[in-house]
Amino acid sequence: MEITNVLVANRGEIARRVFATCRRMGIATTAVYSDADANAPHVAEADAAIRLPGNTPGETYLRAELIIEAALAAGADAIHPGYGFLSENAEFAKAVQAAGLTWIGPPVAAIEQMGSKVESKKMMDAAGVPVLKQLDPAEVTADMLPVLIKASAGGGGRGMRVVRELSELTPQIEAAQREAASAFGDPTVFCERYLETGRHIEVQVMADTHGTVWAVGERECSIQRRHQKVVEEAPSPLVEKIDAMRASGPEEAAERNHAGPARMADGQSMRARLFEAARLASEAIGYEGAGTVEFLADEKGDFFFLEMNTRLQVEHPVTEQVTGLDLVRLQLQVAAGRPLPARQPEMRGHSIEVRLYAEDPAHDWQPQSGPVHKLDIPGTLGEFTVLTEPGVRLDTGVVDGSVVGVHYDPMLSKVISFAETRDEAAHLLASALQRAKIHGLVTNRDLLVRVLRHPAFLAGDTDTAFFATHDLEKLSAPLVSEGDEQLSIVAAALADAAANRRAARVVRGVPSGWRNLPSQPQSKSYESRLTGKHEVRYRLTRTGLEVEGFEGLELLEATPDLVILQVPGERGPVRRRFEIARYGDLVTVDSPLGPVAVRRLPRFEDPADQVAEGSLLAPMPGAVIRVGAAVGDRLEKGQPILWLEAMKMEHTIAAPAAGILTELNVSAGQQVEVGAVLAVVHSEDQE
């Protein structure tokens, strides 16, 4: 069958990714969009776009009947589900085929069999794939702890909870069920033994309708937050290490690996065993198309089946980079009934992907919303395309001016490096991220750079407890030092002064603000989210620039967008270049010292803008789903007061210090805007 027009039943980056391959293949494209996504890039890029009235996933992207109607209205003859939403919904796949449309995905039966993580593990066990024992939540006892609660109908960290205290099991199951229902429309959850440290290894499979099953290559996705992947790479450093030890000789490998000789003498590498298990899993359900078999591995090379994702994965670009394959192209060809190529490609080089999120890792990973004024990753060689030389690839759902809302996942982009070696790929990606211009929202960029440069990461010593092991507070610290931040803020003040001079009125040839006598220093005030208020006091004289707190600073150039300073140092002066941009009261400064973003403060503060000490402000727009305290309650530090739902996740608002709850301004079901005063806690210090 021929595919001529593909509707992508998804949004953002994945829709743009599928559209890019369709354009290269000469296939027309159709987008669907919610009201919140009306101006999104994927809508503008499609040949046709159909509105799904509403904003939330339940109103829009989870409405199978609306999506099928949209495909028929636009003349599409195939539907690609992307990932998330309805991508692993067997009823949706069945309805697509019943409407006479081509389903770009696996058979309905395969989705059904793998759609329940409970049943799929039983099936994999029977097929000879190693699995972790399933636990019935009602039968979990204290000696089984810790356990991991997981959503049966989906992944991506939605509905996952680690429980270490038996008293927390019931409330955590209830919270997981709410998240699972919101994200996948199915509240079913289950438990399994939780391994505190482990390696998350997955195998990309591709199968055609003619009986060929490829295990294309493995990826490692061990660095995670809230059970959602943050850094992904191919090939896996663990697999490379285990197989290198095996190749050095059975006895030596067994000694270095603390394993018995029989483990290393069985003739099979870890990669071969992973690939065999992935093929067994695929063949057991008659799989077709692209899919991923996920395993949890230990440092000895043992692994256990976690789940099979019957769709394309977020992290598929790293596999594309090391194989040269376009996996979306293969998906389309398999759906059209064509066989896979005769030869499976070998892996080459190394690729690392990071997920750039609009979130604040230093404050419990709080998601952010608002405008993305600028997103510029230097050294980008291509978007949504396989690189043939070392460089950076960008797969993004946003462009300059995009707005990140509260209804969907806060991922901005996937930034992917490709190089001959792992070290080179890590250094290349870290450098590109540090030099990137990301204006408008707080992101996890600084954390990603620190991870990529961390000695443990470079040594390949990564596991699912990476952030807990290596001090999240240090990893999420700003790339710029406090001293360099102050210097960047001086540059911002000088650029603002240049902008003021350029905009100032000139009366009879005399610029506004000119004085013929010495005066007090000029003063400009800014606020950094990280280090608080900064006042820059400076004077431009005949002899040069004078800045309070900085000796010997020399101004070489100052325009509204660029400041060049000569900075004194122990071994002589160094020239520093600062690029400045403004968006209302937001001022951004980009330099090799590190990115800085500050808010310009007014000369006189309006008392009406002040909030009472102890006020808890809404960190994002969202809905109050539960209230756990009442006015007059005495609270302990960290005690939950209420829960917000935003971006498909629950967020706890807790007491910042021990004290008394003196105000509670919201109730369950209420919508709140960012910055709204939710509650006030009168701390013991205030008392």
TrEMBL record:
| Positions of the Lipoyl-binding domain | 607-682
Q: Which reaction does it catalyse?
A: N(6)-biotinyl-L-lysyl-[protein] + hydrogencarbonate + ATP = N(6)-carboxybiotinyl-L-lysyl-[protein] + ADP + phosphate + H(+)
Give one Pfam family, short name only.
Biotin_carb_N
Annotated EC: 6.3.4.14
Keywords, in A-Z order: ATP-binding, Biotin, Ligase, Nucleotide-binding
Q: Give the superkingdom in one word.
A: Bacteria
Record domain ATP-grasp: where: 116-336
Q: Which SUPFAM superfamilies match?
A: Glutathione synthetase ATP-binding domain-like, PreATP-grasp domain, Rudiment single hybrid motif, Single hybrid motif
Q: Which cofactors are required for activity?
A: biotin
MF terms from GO for this chain are: ATP binding; biotin carboxylase activity; metal ion binding
Q: What region holds the Biotin carboxylation domain? A: 2-472
**What protein name does the entry list?**
biotin carboxylase
